[in-house]
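Fold this sequence, please.
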Amino acid sequence: MTAVLGPTNTGKTHLAVERMMGHSDGMIGLPLRLLAREVYDRIVKQKGAANVALVTGEEKIIPPHAAYYICTVEAMPLDRPFQFIAIDEIQLAADPERGHIFTDRLLYARGRQETMFLGSDIIRDWIKKLVPDANFTSRERLSKLSYRGPKKLSRLPSRSAIVTFSSGDVYAIAELVRRQRGGAAIVMGNLSPRTRNAQVELYQSGDVDYLVATDAIGMGLNMDIDHVAFASTYKFDGLMGRHLNAAEFSQIAGRAGRHMNDGSFGVTANVEPLDDELVEQIEDHRFEKLRHLCWRNRDLPFNTTRDLIRALEQPPKYKGLVSPRDPDDYRTLKALAADPDIQRYSQNASKVRQLWQVCQVPDFRRTMHDVHVRLLKQIFMNLQDRSGTLPTDWIAGHLRKLEKSDGDIDTLATRIAHTRTWTYISHISDWVDDYKHWQNVARRIEDNLSDALHERLTQRFVDRRTAVLVRKLRDTGQLEAVINDTGEVHVEGHFVGTLTGLRFTADMSSGNSDGRTLRNAGNKAVAREITARAQAISSSEDEEFSLSDQGEIIWKEMTVGRLSKGESVLRPKVTLLASEQLNGVSLEQSTKRLNDWVTAEIEKRLNPLVKLADLPLVGAARGIAFQVSENLGALPRFRVNDQIRNLDKKDFGRLKFGGLRVGYEHVFMPILLKPDPTALRCLLWAIHEERSTIPAPPPAGRVSFEVTEKLPRNFYLTAGYALFDTLAIRLDMLDRLAGLLRRASRGLLETDTASNGNTADKTEKPEAEPKSDDTDPDLTETAPATSENVQGEAVDTSTDSGADADTGTTDASTEPVETEGTADEEATPPVQDDTAEDKSVAKADAKETQPSSPDTSSETSKKDKPRNLPFKPTHEMLSLVGTTREQFTLILENLGYGAKGEGDELTYQKVPFKKRKRPAAGQKPHKGQKKKPDGKKFKPNHPKQAPKAKQIDPDSPFAILKTLNTK
């Protein structure tokens, strides 16, 4: 006698079958008729059908010379000797309903040569106690079993078994799996063997990837299951509802993994995650030993029904053995024994034995107990007829009602259960005439109903088309997915969505289960295409990308990315527009490629702005460059007036050769006023401001235009325009106009006009109209100097510290400008001290450091000219800004000039700061205006600085250029 103990998937049953076939004959008792049928089919293939018998409660296939008997434990014919006997799942001796049968086999079932008990290690102590001579063999699990935690039903891996404990839950879960994954096979204990085998074959063949089952799969059914998911941990055990214990969890979870393939288990369908301690027990196969075994007296007297009942109620003699929960046969006997009709016919031992045999007919129908008792009473009473057998017409009438194969799943399942009762009865040869005929009739009806039930189950819980798709998904070479030129995705001829760039949009118009499953299939089908596109993006050249006016990155006419606010305005964040199918290395590489392209694109299109950070600037000049960069190339001058006052002439030169102009009203970069950099700067501004809509850039080439869309002033400034009320003026034109106005207010325009053409008066050319900047920036390319240009001594440092920076004159030292207040200072370039002493010092320094030049007398006369003279607007002024006279007046008012007269007598003159118009009631003051606590404005008191004396080498290129009187 050998006890082979261990967890599931240790090959115990396989070992027992091999040992049995090594003997001349043998018998093995199995816990389920489904498992018995599986083992029977396997042995028939090796030994032939004539040598193998199948004995279950309702199915008996017994060839005349059968050597090997495959039985359920209850149906084992112990009256026949065998060389080998094995009992599988012997730990079921603790089951409250069936345990007494397994305990009886443990105590009394013996083979002549070999006896083998198979089961869990939790029964080891009881075997030692009840069978002291038994030898023990422990077997380790062939594969590893691991816990995978909770997963949604829709996320369960293929080849999964979903376990629950009621037929209603089985059907509900199977329906959900059908909608999402194409279908599931059904395995329950109340299915006929034929239906169960058909459903298992449906799963094993791969037609469906999911199995929904009760704990019937926990008793040795061998299927290719990789993962077991518990959709419930609560079951009704026939008396009450209770939670599964650790051993039951292990028995069911152990179905995952077969032979050397590892398995996993977890929970699903809103079941709480398993406790860590329970998981550890299951994974390590350590469980509490059995405390009790069920036992019932097998020595039954049949003198009277009272004696039989007393014997069945006899308590166990051994400590730890307990009586079973009232079995169906015992309850039925007590009910029938109290019936007067039964009492009349059960007066002798043979009738009492026959009554006990009737009481052992199983209640396959699981109807109310009284219904089952009434049927058994009819059977017993019919057996009391003179023939001693059941009436043929009575049996035929019952079976005829069961022949119909129409109806739903529950109806067919109920008919099969009734048929199983008559199949069981037909196998008791003493009860019926021509029992083989009735066995064949019952088997035919059961087979027909089983086929119909399998068809209904498949029809309801398996979508053939979707199942084919799901199956093909496992072999991507078979999946027929087509993506046409418009991006439409068709799987197996069905439209499932649209692929745009790297994004897959599923078709949601079909809301049925087929549509959802096809969309799931489409998600997997397009994953390869999305990955291939991402790999192509990561290796594409810069020319294949473009940036739309809405901040979208276009690749091969497909949107693949979008810009959003980043760490700075020149470093926006790049978001890859991809579906969740793209991940891993492909996602990282394509995202990096887009980031690199955006960085290179900004550096190429806004090169002067980006290069500001590389200029060799320090102090105030570096601060100005930084602020210009942060403001995308333009900002009001008043914001950096303090820094401008601290600049020396070399700083002005470096800024100018870096492409930056320090103008009268603004500090800006003229080269960025072209349409292409302007469009990009407007886009970066809108992205950094997180605007919901990206405004269109101003019309290209316009020096002024009427504003129709309400947008922040910063937008127009970024676009290169100053906003006066509803009129936008381009910054370079406004700066040139401001220069003309300054010269006109000092009476210099007429002088320039009179001396035009005289080569000796080249320095008197209007300093606000430099030759290099006269042309529209839209048509002129002006390349800023590199850092090397601004480091040498040959750099032209004659650029003044005011708006005449583009003329090459030294207006800062020779043309002092009156200061009237904060707003005036913000509207005009910074000036040097006006005092006579400072002027004389400056003149003395200039004479010591500069060679004499023919323009000395002209400069002196220029300084001596009066200031703030009234002047008339010229055609040149109007043409610069391209406005009407009313709009021109509006511009000049904002620049601090007032108009007098009308028509041809219209003149303009600079208005003192205190006499300028104040903001209307409710209107906000100018940004540059500050207020005292009493509401009055502060008058700034900036100390004026003396000009710095410059020691210039007379042999330097700079001094030579000064003598040539040219820029």
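Confidence is low (pLDDT under 50) at residues 751-857, 926-938. The first helix runs from residue 12 to 21.
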